[in-house]
């Protein structure tokens, strides 16, 4: 009688060996539990880091540090955080309006990046996107494509903000 009970708890593997079903199920549940625990732990740690950096930037801004006032922090993955400055908006918009192609490409990438962050609920990014000042007339998708070519062709350095932002977009 013990043999039929034992067979209910096993399955035959490809090599005709008996494999306990119960242990395989426990292993799957254990692996799932570990995955959920790790995923939830990583995302909250990254979010805590973003919250900390945002708070520090706000504090420094309130103390009069203009660079901190222009700092936007965004979580872009479980372990990735991006920090962007809005200072180029005021500096490169006039250059783009004057016909400087490089400035227009950089502005288009910055606008695209901030727009994406805004759609993810980043209020600082939304404020930057909505207030600008952005170039008057531009074809943002075409300029982003041109910026990609500029990064690939070495016109912009791979470590530049523009090329780094394109890698995350």
Give an overview in words:
This protein is mainly alpha-helical. The chain has a domain at 70-168. It has eight helices and four strands, in the order αββααββααααα. It has helices spanning 2-8, 21-62, 66-69, 87-97, 101-119, 123-131, 140-152, 161-168, and strands at residues 10-12, 18-20, 71-75, 81-85. The strands form two sheets. The protein has a two-stranded antiparallel sheet with strand order 1-2. The chain has a two-stranded antiparallel sheet with strand order 3-4. α4 crosses α5 (101-119), α5 crosses α6 (123-131) and α5 packs across α8. It is globular. The N and C termini lie far apart (64 Å).
Ordered list of secondary-structure elements with their pairings:
Elements: H1 2-8, E1 10-12, E2 18-20, H2 21-62, H3 66-69, E3 71-75, E4 81-85, H4 87-97, H5 101-119, H6 123-131, H7 140-152, H8 161-168
Antiparallel strand pairs: 1-2, 3-4
Helix pairs in contact: 4-5, 5-6, 5-7, 5-8
